Amino acid sequence: MIEKLRTLFEANGFEVISRVSEKFGVRASKLRLLFIYLSFITLGGIFALYLTGAFFLWIKDSIVTKRPSVFDL
Q1: Measured CA distances, 34 to 14, 29, 31, 48 (Å)
Q2: How far apart are CA 29 and CA 70, in angstroms?
Q3: pLDDT tens digits, the chain, 73 residues: what are they?
Q4: Within a domain: 71
Q5: Does the record's keyword annotation contain Membrane (predicted)?
Q6: Which of 28, 41, 46, 59 could staple 21 via S-S, CB 3.0–4.6 A?
Q7: Which domain holds residue 57?
Q8: Do 36 and 18 contact (CB within 8 A), yes or no?
Q9: How far is the CA of 4 from the CAs of 10, 13, 19, 44, 47, in angstroms?
Q10: Is residue 34 one of the residues assigned to a domain?
Q11: What is the DSSP string of 14-35?
């Protein structure tokens, strides 16, 4: 059963880039490189958004000061 599942994934899953490259008439190596670059750009974009949010929270915390409460006395 596991062997059948493995051969199914190998037959249908690992040749996706080859099929797409044949359909568009592009070399498979160029398409693989494109997918690698797009994944790095996607992860880099998420990390940049995280750093931007952290920067704005740092600015907000430095501008807005918390006042002591009456009950803290």
Answers
A1: 17, 9, 5, 21
A2: 67
A3: 889 888 888 777 778 888 889 999 999 889 989 989 999 999 899 999 999 999 999 998 888 777 777 776 6
A4: no
A5: yes
A6: 28
A7: 2-62
A8: no
A9: 10, 14, 22, 38, 40
A10: yes
A11: TTHHHHHHHHHT--HHHHHHHH
